[in-house]
């Protein structure tokens, strides 16, 4: 009788564990990809981003809420072979409420030039995602206190994404999965005066 009761408990435990696993996959399936180092944090050593600020240097105030808030023009060079399109994520990991997205761009095309220019004037040509303030736009840095990091993460993709404007970062990550050929980033710092 004791063995029969134990078997029932084991089967009940296994059924509940399977149900909870399926629920977790359904509702949190793409979140585990956010933590995968090979997707978001490894850096392609060839591809480079440059701008008028240096990596880990101060972001000029003109690109912030203390200036006109324009997006800093980026130049991308040494893009790996086989790349069809680029995607850009700009976020602030130091925001008080957690990581805030300042810009999401997808399907940035390659050009015949030796580099690709990413500028605010071209945003309407690409697919724009929803930033952390529920807008499809660049949100100029305006940290409430202290120095914040603004990370410009660029992904080189093997194919164009089937994605609509207003997408979330989670949706972008889900669609990029398995298509990343290279990636790089540049970090800027800003503290309000």
From TrEMBL:
Tell me which CDD domains the record gives. Answer: PEBP_bact_arch
- The membrane-spanning stretches of this chain are 12-32
Cited InterPro entries: PEBP, PEBP-like_sf, YbhB_YbcL/LppC-like
Keyword tags: Membrane, Transmembrane, Transmembrane helix
Matching entries from NCBIfam families are given as: YbhB/YbcL family Raf kinase inhibitor-like protein
Q: What PANTHER family is this protein classified in?
A: PEBP (PHOSPHATIDYLETHANOLAMINE-BINDING PROTEIN) FAMILY PROTEIN, UNCHARACTERIZED PROTEIN YBCL-RELATED
Q: What is this protein called?
A: PEBP family protein
Taxonomic placement = Bacteria, environmental samples
């Amino acid at each position: 009788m004791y063995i029969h009761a134990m078997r029932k408990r084991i089967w009940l435990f296994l059924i509940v564990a399977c149900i909870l696993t399926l629920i977790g996959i359904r509702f949190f399936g793409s979140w585990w990809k956010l933590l995968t180092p090979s997707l978001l944090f490894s850096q392609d050593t060839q591809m480079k981003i440059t701008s008028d600020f240096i990596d880990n240097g101060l972001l000029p105030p003109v690109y912030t809420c203390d200036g006109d808030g324009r997006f800093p023009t980026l130049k991308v060079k040494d893009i790996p072979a086989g790349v069809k399109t680029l995607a850009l994520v700009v976020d602030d990991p130091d925001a008080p409420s957690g990581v805030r997205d300042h810009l999401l761009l997808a399907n940035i095309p390659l050009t015949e030039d030796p580099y690709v220019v990413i500028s605010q004037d071209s945003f309407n040509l690409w697919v724009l995602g929803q930033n952390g303030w529920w807008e499809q736009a660049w949100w100029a840095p305006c940290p409430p206190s202290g120095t914040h990091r603004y990370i410009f993460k660029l992904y080189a993709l093997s194919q164009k994404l089937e994605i609509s404007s207003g997408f979330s970062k989670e949706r972008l990550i889900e669609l990029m999965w398995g298509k990343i050929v290279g990636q790089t980033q540049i970090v800027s710092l800003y503290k309000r005066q």
